[in-house]
């Protein structure tokens, strides 16, 4: 996007040829899985808050009603 960002055009002399790019395109993408998603701090904070609210509601229903 040199015309929009006004950056110089990239040098394409060091890029791999079409055969190498086609080989990389057929490789299976590396999946990160659910444990990667659960390791994110905002998600863990959200799940902690929701779990705490459910725990408080359960304790309230069992012992205070």
From TrEMBL:
Keyword line: Membrane, Transmembrane, Transmembrane helix
Keyword field contains Transmembrane: yes
Listed transmembrane segments: 43-64
Annotated stretches, region: Disordered: 1-24
Highest rank taxon of the organism: Bacteria
Protein name: Uncharacterized protein
